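Good day; I would like, with your permission, to put a structural problem before you. What I wish to show you is a protein chain and, alongside it, a tokenised description of its three-dimensional fold. Here, with my thanks, is the record as I have it:
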Amino acid sequence: MSGSKLKGHGQDEAPNRALLETLELPGDLASLGDEDLRQLASELRQEIIRTISRTGGHLGPSLGVVELTLALHAELSSPRDRIIWDVGHQCYAHKLLTGRLHHFSGIRTMEGISGFPRRAESPHDIYGTGHSSTSISAGTGIAEALRLLESQGKGENGSVVAVIGDGALTGGMAFEGLNYAGDVKTPLVVVLNDNEMSIKRNVGAMSSYLSRLRTTPTLYRLRRDMERRLQRFPGIGEVVASMGEQLKEGVKAAIVPGMLFEELGFTYIGVTDGHDVAALRRDIRHALALRGPVVVHVKTTKGKGYLPAEEQPARFHGISPFDVRTGRSLGGGAGKVVSYTEAFGRALVSLARKDERIVGITAAMGPGTGLDLLEEAFPKRFYDVGIAEAHAAVMAAGMAATGLRPVVALYSTFMQRAYDQLIHDVCLQNLPVVFALDRAGLVGDDGPTHHGAFDLSYLRAVPNLTVLVPKDEAELQRLLATALVLEGPVALRYPRGRGRGVPLPQEITPIDGPWAEVLAEGDEVLLLGTGTGVALAEQAAELLSEEGVAATVVNVRKVAPLPLEELRALLADHPAVVTVEENVLAGGFGSSVLEMVADERLDNAVDRVGLPNRFVGHGPTAMLHEEVGFTASAVRDKALRLLGERRGLGGRVRER
């Protein structure tokens, strides 16, 4: 398809900002007419497309809610009225309308604004998000707090609106919030942004239920009209009034299939055209006036207004820089270097061909974790459970207890959402479940909600769990084979992005040791690396050799339980030790080495290089590594300092 995909907007053209630049936003929205709101929607879309084509980001979700965002801010008075964005990757129009127009070009860049709602960034970002299914619970808490404060005369009550996608509604926490808020009649409006998508098309019974509501929107109006007519009917009207809620609920149940939300205590309004600002404003106004728990069901199109994003919503959910005219990626391409994700997916398919017990489970992240390759090869052995990590873990436990070998593929940051299930359902029963944790370490532009910075710390504390960490994509494939033959739970963690370019094995065979693999030998300092820390240790060894220092470099590919015997022999020959890991230093791999030294009363001097014990911001991964000191030069400097101290030089490092 030739030509621009968005009328009047090319790659280098400055978008039209006539209204964005001149209005006092968001306050002026309430007084705008339909034509001006449509013009403003166009300006917002142009600004979002132009910017994200350069920075990358969550394009499709934000394009889909432009009119909804306008309607919300037109009917609400933010920040007195609170808007909570579930997950938050649909918040770009919200940011543009709340004082960040002139900062928007730097979204997701180093020192720029976040791609998610962030409380420290703006008073309009009332609640920080980045993981899904939290908005209803958070909104309930905020609304109940406002209600209590108002009753105490300590504050003015404002409205609270939680915007949740139908994808996030697959998460169990969303139902916990609905269950409670409906029971206590919390004054909360839940806007259900229904676009039939998570990253890929939604799965599950809830998706089917919403589909029935979408295809029969007249049922809502029919039910409402029927209630009114019954109440007016001579003779019957008095009965209706006397029977009250009992008859009303019977009428609802008879006319609208399921009435799930109303049975949970919410008034249901819908289905509303999510790209009709006037209709949205009318229904939001109606919902706010009810002063109770209300669901407004809104139908939107993901990627609305940009044809490639509408046609390929999964690809444009989160996109790298692209050419606006064609929709094609501007990336230089990975060449023949396989990513860790693809190496994992390929290996799982290869191993599944030989072992029919192997199945794959993902939480709405098939393409992101490489499990889409298993889905294509063995669709009956692929399970997408929606955004429900806890369910995925326990389902895997049930499968393992029945003789299968399940592999649960998640991002490291999302494994945190299933920690209780990991401990109680998998590890306590010592079941052979493999957790493949992609995106370990710093992941770049998505920032602190998505960094996999804590997994080594929280995983190595769990009994019965083996934690394996590959140094490259070839070792990842072999460690996956290893995990699938071990008789117990295994976590396999690896980074985002391209591998190191090493040849992949022709035959994927398990590794049975050594678990502390010596890559280079020296007699002065021991560099113990794990995962991406191995490459850093190798680079540091080269820097040390320029200083006349010979270092031993070791790839520790089993972090828990530590290979004590192998490490004991290495520590005996190297009084100075530096550990290197892309994980927070608190409780991580380096801490386990320090514990070993203390427990065995060894006299080794140990220093550690890793991630700081704080939430790291967003930006290019290489720049973040520099910022936090996860560099080869940092490893070298710590090694020289340790050697200086051992030689009685007071820790001084040689001048360079």
